[in-house]
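Ligand: 6-O-phosphono-beta-D-fructofuranose. Inputs:
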Amino acid sequence: MAADKRIGILTSGGDCAGLNAAIRAVVHRAILTYGWQVVGIMEGTQGLLARPVRYQQLTIEMASQQMMRQGGTILGTTNKGNPFAYPMADGSVKDRTAEIVGGYRELGIDALIAIGGDGSMDILRRLAAAGGWNLVGIPKTIDNDVGATEVAIGFDTAVAIATEALDRLQPTAASHHRVMVLEVMGRDAGHIALTAGVAGGADVILIPEIPCSMEKVAARIRDVRQRGRNFALVVVSEAVNSGEGGSVMKEFADGQRRYGGIGNYVGHRIAELTGAETRVTVLGHVQRGGMPSAQDRMVASAFGVHAVDLIAEGRFDRMVAWQNRRVIDVPLEDAIRQYASVDPEGTLVRTARALGISLGD
Ligand code: F6P
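Predicted complex:
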């Protein structure tokens, strides 16, 4: 690609730690190695819908080590407003593909790097097809459910925060002889709960991939007591179906529905079934913010460099991925199609069972 080319970058979907490290790597590789210009599109596809299009020219000076340490995304992001059925102010829904494609054209970019989860990748791939864009994806999400990659940016930091929460809950559990329930995020995948639960010494880990029963959970708590320990730690993934009333969702003032509240239900049932004093902590968006872990910075940096190299090689409709200790690239379609949930027969589930952790089944 010639030196006068310009590429775009955007972040889409929920924020997480490590996004700025990926942006920094893209800026450095594109400017220092190839001499290209890089424009950052603001708030995902929202920036392309605005007129004039909202973007900023990204420079080496802006993309500093300091920026890499920051949580969130300097470009802003959005996880609402599906462009194919966009909710308008008058209550109608509208397909805004043509406006987004027009915004992209206005920017005059040769290729786009999109940092997103599977939902965002799916939307952007369809937009790319409609607009003839040269698209490259970088996977990010604390849920770690993007297919074809072992890790997505943000997961490691979220797990570290959830593990630290268990470390902090354990002394209170022991001091007050309580069952402490920790509800973590992850959407339909139990990766955060399972990984943090194993690392943080949980007694019970409930994940959406393994149907659970509250009776079995109560039995494990009684068993812990019989063995002479007067406290327990329980980790619950937000999308868990308790087997008694389905999964729990909450609705926000703007009508959006999200998982949330299963921890309170589980805590309440444990108290009812065992008589134990229980307390519930809902970790929420704490898992998405803060400084990225070393691993997230490292993976994000490697992803950013490889994404720019794909553009240089003219290889599009691909996503960078982490497999077997290295960065590779896969067809974007594979990443979208192969949803990465927890393998109920996988290493971590087997490890948890071997450690005597109940999965509620
Ligand atoms: O996908 C990331 C995630 O944090 C999920 O784990 C969670 O269910 C959801 O986003 C929360 O979304 P919001 O930020 O809109 O509340």
